[in-house]
Amino acid sequence: MALIEDVIDVLFKHKEGLTAREICQALGLEPSRENEVYSAIMRAAKVLRRKGFELVMIPPQCKKCGFSFDKLKVSRCPKCKSEWIEPARFLIRS
């Protein structure tokens, strides 16, 4: 539960939103724990909903053609086949 609370605190401090990797950096975690942070983000959404807040995901987007993805983690754009993908960003709204 501590990681979930840490993720929520970091997101409250960064109004512009953060990627999972940026959350790892802010918490001093190894980049290899990025999947753990994604899991904590999903659980944090439920906690925030109960407190009257909303966790918003800005979806991943292709940097080359601008294609916006539905999935959280992607590796290649289906439209232009580029691997230049801007990762999903997360932010909290009241």
How does this model look, in words?
The protein has 3 helices and 4 strands, in the order αααββββ. It is an alpha+beta fold. It folds into 2 domains: 1-52; 57-89. Strands 1-4 form a two-stranded antiparallel ribbon. It has a two-stranded antiparallel sheet with strand order 2-3. The two termini are 22 Å apart. The model has no long low-confidence stretch (mean pLDDT 93).
Please state roughly what percent of the residues sit in beta strands, choosing from under 5%, 5-15%, 15-25%, 25-35%, 35-45% or over 45%: 5-15%
DSSP, total strands: 4
**Average pLDDT for all residues:** 93
Q: N- to C-terminal separation?
A: 22 Å
The Rg value, from CA coordinates, equals: 14 Å
Helix fraction by DSSP (H/I, runs of at least 4): 25-40%
Q: Outline the biggest β-sheet.
A: 2 strands, antiparallel
Alpha-beta classification: alpha+beta
Low-confidence stretches at least 5 residues in length (pLDDT < 50)? none
Described by the principal axes of the CA atoms, the overall outline is: globular
Q: Give the SSE order as H and E letters.
A: HHHEEEE
Number of domain modules: 2
Assembly type:
single chain
Number of helices: 3
- Sequence of strands across the biggest β-sheet: 1-4
